Amino acid sequence: MQGACVSVLCMCICVSVLLHSAISQPPTESDTYTECTDGYHWDLQTEHCKDINECDTIPDACKGGMKCFNHYGGYLCLPRSASVIPAPEPAITPTESNPCPLGYEAQDDSCVDINECEREEDDCQPSQQCINTLGAFTCQCPDGYRKVGTECIDIDECRYRYCQHRCVNVPGSFSCQCEPGFQLAGNNRSCIDVNECEMGAPCSQRCYNTYGTFLCRCDQGYELDADGLTCKDINECGFSSFLCQFQCVNEPGKFSCVCPEGYQLQGTRLCQDINECETGEHQCTEAQTCVNIHGRYQCVEENRCQEPYVQVSENRCVCPVSKPACRDLPFSIVHRYMSITSERSVPSDVFQIQATSVSPGAYNTFRIRSGDENGDFYIRQINNISAMLVLARAVSGPREYTLDLEMVSVNPLNSYQSNYQTSSALRLSIYVGPYTF
């Protein structure tokens, strides 16, 4: 507390006012905060502690219409009508043994400064440095400490937020630390990103640096494992059975499609039958005809006519009416060849029979004469001159059917024989392939 006489309306009123502490600013690197106490600053010219005029340095130091009065080590906020009469400083009275002021000693006819530090007449602590001044001395604390009373107290630099990330206070100093993924910059305070990709990040394939960390990515055909670092192959073949028409083969980072023997890859996924009869890759003799079927070929004899039939063209056999054995046989047989896939959906149209010549007034019916003992096929007649062979049950290959498809013609208009009946057959060889395509 500080007493002061305030003159208001010619009356002396004794008031007590609280000294306002000076507002201290955060220390900079060049400040020591060891020479002077709060409210004073070190004057390099006079080498003394000099009072800070807070009324000049602090904007709007007093609020509510109060007036600011500077005071030793602080300031007062009083009504604007008040005035402060400072007490006179006590005079230093020389003694008879030392006619000089305190801190000086007589030498000849003059007073010279006493170096208390050299004479060890100071009261500085062992950790403090004694600095002689004119007429006195000061005790200075080491860097990183500030003087409170007679003691040196460590300055907690961390509360001034010198560090960008983490600050660690240590006696007389501090150190800055960075979060993982960062490193200290050249000023030892800021933190800069670490490019882990350039420093050997453990990504097995691709590394992408990000702020404070990194990401691992994989090439096409691979996926990131649970550890976030390793890339493992994607088994594309396990995703779907429709990637390849025949077989999918997984490879590191990709997959490929393969085809069975007798087929070739068309594009990247489909299999196309190789026509060995056209490419010349067959083993048929000159007396045989090459017939291409799914995945392979078949060699058939050029003359497939059996007694009592005789060959009249490449694929046609005729049974002469002059031979008694031909009485109950179809007049002609035409040979045809085809192939189908295994497990074909049913019912499925397989082969259309078409009459090439029809007598006027003739009525035609179609039937399977032989070769379908298991009832795997049936005939659906379309009209008087055509019918469709239908697959009734799903069949698996490889296997071969030889069906005699007969067209029976009845002509009631024949003048010389009533209800004249004749027939012709189509001998169809059907090869069922081993695959479903």
TrEMBL record:
InterPro entries: cEGF, EGF, EGF-like_Ca-bd_dom, EGF-type_Asp/Asn_hydroxyl_site, EGF_Ca-bd_CS, Fibulin_C, Growth_fac_rcpt_cys_sf, Nephronectin_domain
Gene3D superfamilies: Laminin
Matches recorded under PROSITE patterns: ASX_HYDROXYL, EGF_2, EGF_3, EGF_CA
Location of this chain's protein in the cell: Secreted, Extracellular space, Extracellular matrix
Main location: secreted
Keywords tagged on the record: Calcium, Disulfide bond, EGF-like domain, Extracellular matrix, Glycoprotein, Repeat, Secreted, Signal
Similarity-based family: Belongs to the fibulin family.
PANTHER family xref list: FIBULIN-5, PA14 DOMAIN-CONTAINING PROTEIN
Name assigned to this protein: EGF-containing fibulin-like extracellular matrix protein 2a
Source organism per UniProt: Notothenia coriiceps
Name of the gene this protein is made from: efemp2a
